[in-house]
Design brief:
It is a single chain. The chain is an all-alpha fold and 279 residues long. It is built from ten helices and two strands; from the N terminus they run αααββααααααα. Strands 1-2 form a two-stranded antiparallel ribbon.
Protein backbone atom coordinates (compact mmCIF):
# COMPACT_ATOMS: atom_id res chain seq x y z
CA UNK A 1 0.00 0.00 0.00
CA UNK A 2 1.42 3.35 -1.02
CA UNK A 3 1.59 6.09 1.63
CA UNK A 4 -1.18 8.63 1.30
CA UNK A 5 1.10 11.54 0.47
CA UNK A 6 2.71 9.70 -2.45
CA UNK A 7 -0.50 8.91 -4.30
CA UNK A 8 -2.72 11.38 -6.07
CA UNK A 9 -5.65 10.34 -8.21
CA UNK A 10 -7.49 12.64 -10.54
CA UNK A 11 -10.51 11.15 -12.27
CA UNK A 12 -12.02 13.15 -15.05
CA UNK A 13 -15.56 12.15 -15.90
CA UNK A 14 -17.11 12.37 -19.33
CA UNK A 15 -18.56 15.76 -18.43
CA UNK A 16 -15.13 17.35 -17.95
CA UNK A 17 -14.02 16.70 -21.50
CA UNK A 18 -17.36 16.99 -23.28
CA UNK A 19 -17.50 20.05 -25.55
CA UNK A 20 -20.97 21.03 -24.36
CA UNK A 21 -19.65 21.79 -20.87
CA UNK A 22 -18.13 25.22 -20.23
CA UNK A 23 -14.41 25.55 -19.94
CA UNK A 24 -14.75 26.56 -16.29
CA UNK A 25 -15.39 22.91 -15.46
CA UNK A 26 -11.90 22.13 -16.64
CA UNK A 27 -10.06 24.76 -14.62
CA UNK A 28 -8.48 22.14 -12.41
CA UNK A 29 -7.22 20.29 -15.46
CA UNK A 30 -5.20 23.34 -16.53
CA UNK A 31 -2.87 22.97 -13.59
CA UNK A 32 -2.86 19.16 -13.49
CA UNK A 33 -1.46 18.48 -16.93
CA UNK A 34 2.19 19.41 -17.43
CA UNK A 35 4.47 19.91 -20.43
CA UNK A 36 7.13 17.25 -20.69
CA UNK A 37 10.04 16.88 -23.07
CA UNK A 38 12.47 14.66 -21.20
CA UNK A 39 13.46 12.22 -23.90
CA UNK A 40 16.49 12.23 -26.16
CA UNK A 41 16.00 9.10 -28.28
CA UNK A 42 13.48 6.45 -29.23
CA UNK A 43 14.84 4.17 -26.50
CA UNK A 44 13.05 6.04 -23.76
CA UNK A 45 10.13 7.64 -25.60
CA UNK A 46 7.99 5.10 -23.80
CA UNK A 47 8.73 6.60 -20.40
CA UNK A 48 8.26 10.15 -21.60
CA UNK A 49 4.87 9.65 -23.18
CA UNK A 50 3.69 7.76 -20.13
CA UNK A 51 5.00 10.37 -17.72
CA UNK A 52 2.13 12.87 -17.82
CA UNK A 53 -1.62 12.93 -18.07
CA UNK A 54 -2.85 14.20 -21.42
CA UNK A 55 -6.18 15.73 -22.36
CA UNK A 56 -7.89 13.89 -25.20
CA UNK A 57 -9.23 15.87 -28.12
CA UNK A 58 -12.69 17.12 -27.23
CA UNK A 59 -15.83 15.24 -28.10
CA UNK A 60 -14.77 11.74 -27.05
CA UNK A 61 -15.53 9.98 -23.82
CA UNK A 62 -12.66 8.86 -21.66
CA UNK A 63 -11.39 8.69 -18.10
CA UNK A 64 -7.94 9.59 -16.90
CA UNK A 65 -6.30 8.37 -13.72
CA UNK A 66 -3.11 10.07 -12.67
CA UNK A 67 -0.74 8.61 -10.09
CA UNK A 68 2.15 10.60 -8.67
CA UNK A 69 4.80 8.59 -6.87
CA UNK A 70 8.20 10.24 -6.38
CA UNK A 71 10.09 6.93 -6.40
CA UNK A 72 8.09 4.86 -8.88
CA UNK A 73 8.58 4.52 -12.64
CA UNK A 74 7.21 6.95 -15.22
CA UNK A 75 4.28 4.71 -16.18
CA UNK A 76 1.90 7.08 -14.47
CA UNK A 77 -1.47 6.94 -16.18
CA UNK A 78 -3.94 4.64 -17.83
CA UNK A 79 -6.94 5.40 -19.99
CA UNK A 80 -10.13 3.71 -21.01
CA UNK A 81 -9.55 4.39 -24.71
CA UNK A 82 -9.44 1.71 -27.40
CA UNK A 83 -6.13 -0.16 -27.41
CA UNK A 84 -4.14 0.30 -30.61
CA UNK A 85 -1.66 -2.20 -32.00
CA UNK A 86 1.55 -1.73 -33.96
CA UNK A 87 1.02 -2.11 -37.71
CA UNK A 88 4.30 -4.01 -37.99
CA UNK A 89 4.55 -6.44 -35.06
CA UNK A 90 0.90 -6.21 -33.84
CA UNK A 91 2.03 -5.60 -30.26
CA UNK A 92 -0.11 -3.19 -28.17
CA UNK A 93 0.96 0.45 -28.24
CA UNK A 94 1.45 1.69 -24.70
CA UNK A 95 1.48 5.44 -25.36
CA UNK A 96 -0.95 7.99 -26.77
CA UNK A 97 -0.11 9.39 -29.19
CA UNK A 98 2.17 6.53 -30.18
CA UNK A 99 4.96 7.84 -32.37
CA UNK A 100 6.93 4.59 -32.18
CA UNK A 101 6.26 1.00 -31.23
CA UNK A 102 8.27 0.23 -28.12
CA UNK A 103 8.57 -3.43 -29.11
CA UNK A 104 9.92 -3.23 -32.67
CA UNK A 105 10.85 0.51 -32.67
CA UNK A 106 8.95 1.12 -35.93
CA UNK A 107 7.36 4.53 -36.50
CA UNK A 108 3.56 4.51 -36.29
CA UNK A 109 0.94 6.37 -38.37
CA UNK A 110 -0.45 9.61 -36.89
CA UNK A 111 -3.62 9.17 -34.85
CA UNK A 112 -6.51 10.98 -36.49
CA UNK A 113 -8.16 13.69 -34.39
CA UNK A 114 -5.40 14.00 -31.79
CA UNK A 115 -5.31 17.57 -30.45
CA UNK A 116 -2.21 19.72 -30.88
CA UNK A 117 -1.95 20.09 -27.11
CA UNK A 118 -1.70 16.33 -26.77
CA UNK A 119 0.80 15.98 -29.61
CA UNK A 120 3.01 18.59 -27.96
CA UNK A 121 2.38 17.09 -24.49
CA UNK A 122 1.25 20.47 -23.13
CA UNK A 123 -1.35 21.83 -20.76
CA UNK A 124 -4.71 22.60 -22.31
CA UNK A 125 -4.35 26.25 -21.36
CA UNK A 126 -3.98 29.60 -23.06
CA UNK A 127 -0.86 30.44 -21.05
CA UNK A 128 1.24 27.36 -21.71
CA UNK A 129 5.00 27.22 -21.16
CA UNK A 130 6.56 28.35 -24.46
CA UNK A 131 10.06 27.20 -23.47
CA UNK A 132 8.86 23.64 -22.87
CA UNK A 133 6.80 23.76 -26.06
CA UNK A 134 9.90 24.70 -28.06
CA UNK A 135 11.97 22.00 -26.37
CA UNK A 136 9.31 19.38 -27.12
CA UNK A 137 9.17 20.51 -30.74
CA UNK A 138 12.92 20.19 -31.27
CA UNK A 139 13.04 16.75 -29.68
CA UNK A 140 10.10 15.45 -31.70
CA UNK A 141 11.46 16.78 -34.97
CA UNK A 142 14.85 15.29 -34.17
CA UNK A 143 13.29 11.86 -33.68
CA UNK A 144 10.72 12.01 -36.48
CA UNK A 145 12.58 13.88 -39.23
CA UNK A 146 12.25 12.07 -42.60
CA UNK A 147 16.04 12.03 -43.03
CA UNK A 148 16.17 9.44 -40.25
CA UNK A 149 14.06 7.05 -42.32
CA UNK A 150 15.69 7.30 -45.75
CA UNK A 151 16.83 3.67 -45.48
CA UNK A 152 13.55 2.41 -44.03
CA UNK A 153 10.46 1.05 -45.76
CA UNK A 154 8.25 3.29 -47.90
CA UNK A 155 5.52 3.09 -45.27
CA UNK A 156 7.86 4.28 -42.51
CA UNK A 157 9.05 7.13 -44.71
CA UNK A 158 5.47 8.22 -45.32
CA UNK A 159 4.58 8.04 -41.62
CA UNK A 160 7.65 10.04 -40.61
CA UNK A 161 6.80 12.75 -43.15
CA UNK A 162 3.22 12.91 -41.89
CA UNK A 163 4.35 13.12 -38.27
CA UNK A 164 6.95 15.77 -39.03
CA UNK A 165 4.41 17.94 -40.86
CA UNK A 166 1.82 17.48 -38.10
CA UNK A 167 4.28 18.32 -35.33
CA UNK A 168 5.33 21.46 -37.20
CA UNK A 169 1.70 22.56 -37.64
CA UNK A 170 0.92 21.87 -33.98
CA UNK A 171 3.96 23.84 -32.88
CA UNK A 172 3.22 26.84 -35.10
CA UNK A 173 -0.42 26.88 -33.95
CA UNK A 174 0.36 26.76 -30.23
CA UNK A 175 3.39 29.03 -30.36
CA UNK A 176 1.57 32.37 -30.72
CA UNK A 177 -1.27 33.49 -28.42
CA UNK A 178 -3.61 34.42 -31.28
CA UNK A 179 -3.43 31.16 -33.21
CA UNK A 180 -3.45 29.22 -29.93
CA UNK A 181 -6.61 30.97 -28.73
CA UNK A 182 -8.37 30.57 -32.07
CA UNK A 183 -7.50 26.86 -32.03
CA UNK A 184 -8.89 26.50 -28.51
CA UNK A 185 -12.14 28.10 -29.66
CA UNK A 186 -12.24 25.68 -32.60
CA UNK A 187 -11.96 22.80 -30.14
CA UNK A 188 -14.97 24.32 -28.38
CA UNK A 189 -16.89 24.47 -31.66
CA UNK A 190 -16.41 28.22 -32.20
CA UNK A 191 -14.64 30.04 -35.01
CA UNK A 192 -13.76 33.61 -35.93
CA UNK A 193 -14.30 33.93 -39.66
CA UNK A 194 -11.69 35.63 -41.83
CA UNK A 195 -12.67 39.02 -43.24
CA UNK A 196 -15.28 39.84 -40.60
CA UNK A 197 -15.22 42.25 -37.69
CA UNK A 198 -16.70 39.59 -35.36
CA UNK A 199 -19.00 42.16 -33.79
CA UNK A 200 -16.31 44.81 -33.19
CA UNK A 201 -17.90 48.11 -32.14
CA UNK A 202 -17.50 51.37 -34.03
CA UNK A 203 -15.30 52.96 -31.36
CA UNK A 204 -12.81 50.09 -31.54
CA UNK A 205 -12.73 50.21 -35.35
CA UNK A 206 -12.15 53.96 -35.29
CA UNK A 207 -9.25 53.45 -32.87
CA UNK A 208 -7.69 50.94 -35.23
CA UNK A 209 -8.10 53.31 -38.14
CA UNK A 210 -6.29 56.06 -36.25
CA UNK A 211 -3.42 53.70 -35.36
CA UNK A 212 -3.06 52.62 -38.99
CA UNK A 213 -3.10 56.22 -40.19
CA UNK A 214 -0.43 57.17 -37.64
CA UNK A 215 1.71 54.26 -38.79
CA UNK A 216 1.34 55.28 -42.44
CA UNK A 217 2.43 58.82 -41.56
CA UNK A 218 5.43 57.70 -39.47
CA UNK A 219 8.59 59.22 -40.92
CA UNK A 220 11.18 57.95 -38.44
CA UNK A 221 11.98 54.60 -36.80
CA UNK A 222 11.21 56.19 -33.41
CA UNK A 223 7.65 57.02 -34.46
CA UNK A 224 7.05 53.51 -35.77
CA UNK A 225 8.68 51.98 -32.68
CA UNK A 226 6.36 53.91 -30.38
CA UNK A 227 3.31 52.48 -32.16
CA UNK A 228 4.89 49.05 -31.96
CA UNK A 229 5.50 49.30 -28.21
CA UNK A 230 1.94 50.52 -27.61
CA UNK A 231 0.66 47.57 -29.60
CA UNK A 232 2.78 45.09 -27.63
CA UNK A 233 1.38 46.47 -24.36
CA UNK A 234 -2.15 46.14 -25.69
CA UNK A 235 -1.49 42.55 -26.78
CA UNK A 236 -0.11 41.73 -23.32
CA UNK A 237 -3.28 43.08 -21.68
CA UNK A 238 -5.46 41.15 -24.13
CA UNK A 239 -3.52 37.96 -23.37
CA UNK A 240 -4.33 38.28 -19.66
CA UNK A 241 -7.98 39.07 -20.37
CA UNK A 242 -8.37 36.14 -22.77
CA UNK A 243 -6.76 33.75 -20.30
CA UNK A 244 -9.13 34.93 -17.57
CA UNK A 245 -12.16 34.57 -19.85
CA UNK A 246 -11.20 31.03 -20.87
CA UNK A 247 -10.58 29.98 -17.26
CA UNK A 248 -14.05 31.26 -16.33
CA UNK A 249 -15.64 29.49 -19.28
CA UNK A 250 -16.73 32.79 -20.84
CA UNK A 251 -16.24 31.66 -24.43
CA UNK A 252 -18.14 34.49 -26.10
CA UNK A 253 -16.03 37.03 -24.21
CA UNK A 254 -12.87 35.16 -25.19
CA UNK A 255 -14.01 35.14 -28.81
CA UNK A 256 -14.55 38.92 -28.80
CA UNK A 257 -11.16 39.52 -27.18
CA UNK A 258 -9.42 37.24 -29.67
CA UNK A 259 -11.01 39.23 -32.50
CA UNK A 260 -9.41 42.36 -31.02
CA UNK A 261 -6.11 40.54 -30.65
CA UNK A 262 -6.31 39.61 -34.32
CA UNK A 263 -6.51 43.28 -35.35
CA UNK A 264 -3.66 44.34 -33.05
CA UNK A 265 -1.51 41.41 -34.23
CA UNK A 266 -1.99 42.70 -37.79
CA UNK A 267 -0.82 46.15 -36.70
CA UNK A 268 2.23 44.57 -35.06
CA UNK A 269 3.14 42.96 -38.38
CA UNK A 270 2.66 46.28 -40.19
CA UNK A 271 5.01 47.94 -37.71
CA UNK A 272 7.69 45.39 -38.57
CA UNK A 273 7.21 46.10 -42.27
CA UNK A 274 7.39 49.84 -41.63
CA UNK A 275 10.60 49.50 -39.66
CA UNK A 276 12.16 47.47 -42.45
CA UNK A 277 11.63 50.46 -44.75
CA UNK A 278 14.00 52.51 -42.62
CA UNK A 279 16.83 49.99 -42.87
Amino acid sequence: MLPFNSLRIVCLSRALVHPSWPMSNRQSVYKTVTCSAHFMSISFLKDTWNSNMHLKSLGKERKLIYYSNPVSSHRNYSTGQVQLNCWNCRQPLDTTPAFFCMSCKVVQPPEEGTSYFKIMNCDYTFTLDIHKLQKRYLLLQRSLHPDNFSQKSVKEQEYSESHSALVNKAYQTLLKPLSRGLYMLELEGMRIEEGTDSGADLEFLMELMEINEALDKARTPEEANKIGQDTKRKLAVLTEEIDAALLKGELQAAKALLAQMKYHANIEEKVKEKLSEFM
